[in-house]
UniProtKB/TrEMBL annotation:
This is Biotin-independent malonate decarboxylase subunit beta. It holds the Pfam family Carboxyl_trans. It comes from Erwinia aeris. It is an enzyme of class 4 (lyase). It comes from the Bacteria.
Amino acid sequence: MRDDSSFIELKARQRARLLLDEGSGRELLDPFDGIMSPWLPAQGIVPQADDGMVVMKGTIDGQPAVVVAIEGSFQGGSMGEVSGAKMATALELAAEDNRKGIPTRAVLCLETGGVRLQEANLGLAAIADIHAAIVDLRRYTPVIGIIAGTVGCFGGMSIAAGLCSSLIVTREARLGLNGPQVIEQEAGIAEYDSRDRPFIWSMTGGEARYRSGLADVLVPDGANAVKKAMNEAIARGVPAQHRSDEYSYYLPRLSEMNTERQADAQQVNEVYAREDRG
């Protein structure tokens, strides 16, 4: 693949196949299996045969691996009962492999707005299962998260990103618990203007999240660059301490945050930035 090939422009299935060793990937529950959401047609929404979730087994650097990629162009990458179960089960099976002595790696391509509103509690339950599966699996092998763009990673799946052993982002990526339109709807445009793209990226963009220590690796939008970063993250192994366990570092900083002024990029950096980040 050319060095200048965009990773962001790839569909979920293309991303998954790219990240695995060439020719090693085989998809599980592919569109021909026809496992799709039973809830969308009743609401007048055309379902997708893979429910927007691609699960592909293969190898990475010759070792067993599973790549799970969310298709951001289907329902904004939202998580429903079927798509969530596919990701959770893939992670659970990878953990079982590791317990059986098969060192299976896991990579998650996260392009999602969070829970699918049309499936509400079913989607929330699936996301909770994903969280539990990541925490289980990361004891044995690093779970690598990748947020490239253009959807970003929001809602309950932003928590999944935070649970990953290593999180790779591009400058075009976004990461946040609530999306810009949700914040504007609840707090008003004076608090958060969802149309102000420079402001949004200065707060939740990939570079901002890297500088604040909430993402581990910042890469340019290139297929080879993303794959190289993934391989390096896997090679580093399971971290001595996961970010989600560093509450003694984060909680005091959150409590000191001045909520009387509108948050901006400078304030976020002051609260979160690590000394070893530029």
